[in-house]
Write the structure tokens for this entry.
Amino acid sequence: MAAIRGDATADADDGDTASTLLGLYMCATTAPVWKSKSKSTRTITEALPATTSPAAAGPTSRRRLTRVLRCSHMANTFHRRQFSCLALLCQVLVVILYGFFCRYDENAMPFGSSSRIYVNTDYPLFQDIHVMIFVGCGFLMSFLKRYGFSAISVNLLLASFCVQWVTLLRGFLSPNFINKGYFTISISELMTSDVTSLAVLITMGALLGQLTPVQFLVLAFIESSVAVLLEHLLFEILHINDGGRSLVVHCFGAYFGLACSKVIHRMNLVDVDASDGSIRHSELFSMIGTLFLWVFFPSLNAATSEPEDARHRAIMNTYLSMTSCTVVTFLVSSLSDAFGRFNMLHIQSSTLAGGIAIGTVANVILYPHHAILVGGMTGLLSVVGHVAITPKFFERKLRLYDTCGVHNLHGLPGLLAGILSVFFALWYDPAEYGPRISKIYPHWIGGERGGDRNQYTQAVYQGCGILITLATAAVSGMLTGLIVRMRIWSHIPTQNSSWEDINYYRDAKFTVFSKTYTPTHPDNQPGFTRQSTLLLHEQTAALYENGQSIF
């Protein structure tokens, strides 16, 4: 705005500065809802006082103001329809790629022999993961009092898109596609895609309230692609164990979001702290999300574990870890308060951290007390992160804003899970697993793939997996932040609070084909109508004439 202001001042005739600047300001702050360009320009012009209208300005200023007003209308129209165009492009691309390269697995076809058994085995886990992603994650992020619609509905949007896109990318990297030119999908592939899409939702939690739906869709496209490539690198090339995907999903998604937030926060001019708060019923909705995630978390860690004995261990280890983590969370939360009270932020997030920390080793741990110890350590670490690390280090030192506290819920527990994978690879005697150890560590010496690793070399590879995950998340997150902050994408308007659902939703009483939109404030008061918008500009003109800055 400073550059535009200076340029307009340089070319304006004497006495025309006020009218030109006022026109540019109106152009930048108004989103026209009228169909005709000329009518829009004429209406805005008529709203100006006679002394500051373009008609009273010199020829240069009048032409410049008219041109800017028309360009502004085109730009606003482009940004209003940008999401629809981008979503249409993505969906058409998905349909074309599925049509050419994707087929159902033979178990889903009429000539399949084991379809019923296959569905009965995997579909219960498939349902549980769906509830976690579409219900649990959405309601968990609904604690913001003015961002409930977006927390739940954008969560649904991103998860739906990511499942389609991730399934495609995983198929393109499969041996079946390389050999035959197409790939097949089953419930197992869709379930794995659900788990991978969780990384994008974790990133969304870090950036909640800082991006528009368009920017979130662009971010989901990039991050899900990077997540699939990271999985392929760690599982198919390095052959590490990450049974519950704590590294490639939770740790990656959290630090990807934090790196992106660091770049986005420098661009964001809105003081987001002003509306970053909750009320009683929003906290209750968030607690509902916590309960859904808590109940179904064992299914998430067991879904990608094989064979059945490893899946059985993953369920029991996850459950014991989460119960221990919950008790320790309440304990430490009470100790952190001078009056011994509980903090709902700790209860909503830290009670889930035990399931994340044990995810990577959920199929490895052989004794119950180890799972309980892991859960207790994670509860302590997560609450300490909320109390000390986030406010004193991230926000004050790094100037990094983490809306939902994903660093303490996903980042630290995911990092701990990676460290535990190194520890337990060295701790347990390989003889305790027998010949099935190659199901946990695929490249184990004497395994089906003819590997040459022992417990020491496997521990080294597990450590390398941690470093690669952190480096990939940091670099790709910052690059994605630079991409989504580009001016081509619609941004949260700086004159409104970024936490307002009003920016993206309208009342249900409006029809799909209505041509005008009258928003409603969260306090259920009438918003800006056409007449009140023009009145606002008249008041702005009066402020400018009195020497008060409108910038």
Remarks:
- The mean pLDDT is 79.
- The domain at 93-484 is CATH 1.10.3430.10 (Ammonium transporter fold).
- The chain is about 65% helix and 0% strand.
- The longest strand covers residues 102-104.
